[in-house]
What does this fold into?
Amino acid sequence: MTSEAGPGEPLLIATTNRGKAREIAAALATLAVRFVTLVDAGIEAVCPETEKTLAANARAKAEFYSRRSGLLTLAEDSGLEIKALGGGPGILSARFSGPRATDAKNVSKVLRLLASVPPSGRRARFVCVMALARNGRVVASARGVVRGTIAAGPKGTAGFGYDPIFYYHPRGKTFAELSPAEKNAVSHRGRALAAMKVRLHRFLSK
It folds into this structure.
């Protein structure tokens, strides 16, 4: 994963989720940075996600990986919050179906829990929080939110995670039915990245 904007400053994208990494790199491609993965940086240590909020987890990951890499580091935490599930899965979104969670298992669990809930009660939102850190200190943060409902079943083959069941009313489709460009223009991560891009540009210009 390299930036087309030239060598620039190395920017560690601190995630093992390839889908997230692709979206982040695409959104920041015009900045003068060179994208580095955790594998590129030779980092095998995993930041324990023990915080109680998405924001705290994002900050913890940014600080953790920036200290170990010595690089400017961008980390994020995101989750699906469903009103009928008391805001769940929330911070547990990636591992909602257990220690060996997969996207398919997580989606199946959500649909099972909402099986008796009518369409009017299936309101949900995606939330993404990003943190930029250098030398173990957060220097910028951003947040993005998008609202929708949980569909009766999965539709679409694009995206990842809960995208097949997240129905976005303005487009009349699930996130998995949108093209990457369409999704990134309206998604929680796209909105957080738009704000972070401005802050990252200012930071690099200092």
